[in-house]
Design a protein that fits this description.
- With 181 residues, the protein is of the alpha+beta class.
- 35% of the residues lie in helices and 29% in strands.
- The protein has an 8-stranded mixed sheet with strand order 1-2-3-4-5-6-8-7, with helices on both faces.
- The protein is globular, with a radius of gyration of 16 Å.
- The termini are far apart.
Length: 181
Amino acid sequence: MRLTAGHVTLRPVTDADIQMVREWRNSETVRSQLVDRSEISPEQQRTWWSKMRFDPFYFAWICESQGKPFGFVWVKLDQDLSGTTGIFMGPAGHGTGDAFFVTHAINNWFFDELRRDSLRCECFATNRSGVRYNRSIGYEDEWVNPDTLLIRMVLTRESHEKFKTRMERIIRGNPQFPLFA
């Protein structure tokens, strides 16, 4: 299933994408923001993918702009109408603002199409831009691990609805309400 927001398309991950995703995931920029900061071997990547690709509760997409891949995003659905998501960018996605379009597409699919109640993500407090961005689109801190400074954040259906209109105005090029206001 493909998802779109503005000029960004999310297409399902294929076997041909796995090496590219591993390279992005192993970059220092991405690893520095992960709980597991070790490099992933080709065998570990294949094992992970062979398990995830057939999991009916796991969805993974390659993020593209003008047909060029720039990132990876996933959602894991839970039994209680909640879910967890994560995103990381390859070199072509850094500093472009395209993560905004990715999260808009994911949030609309999750809340509007699947009719789910809450979506969680995790972000280190040291990733100030990530924390600030997530809060700007309605995520709230659920808990913080004081030892690692890992923040679990949650976006509820109500918060999604509140920020959805603001996000759509920005996508249409009419930012009457700045995102970070």
